[in-house]
Amino acid sequence: MISEKRAFELIQDTVSNMGQEGLLSEEIVIRPDTLLQGKGAAFDSLAFVTLVIDLEVRLNQEINQDVLLKFDDIQAFADDAPLTVAVLMRYIVELKLGDT
What span, in angstroms and rounded, lies between the C-alpha atoms of 94 and 4? Predict the structure, then answer.
């Protein structure tokens, strides 16, 4: 199972890699309250999609299992709260990835 701490590390590593590859216009410091979507978000829509896809790849490698992060499911999980790193972390934990 992926812990919240590990989910945060994977998100952080993904964002860092995106910055190194020049996919972000500026450095983004990731914190649990970092807004991922919506007005004032740290990411534009293309960067957010890239984040999700790259995060899926990292999760696949981490647990050796296919992972699909569905935006609609993440939004529903957020329950009308702003989509932040903390929400994404909890969503990943709730998927119970790696449990057999």
Answer: 10
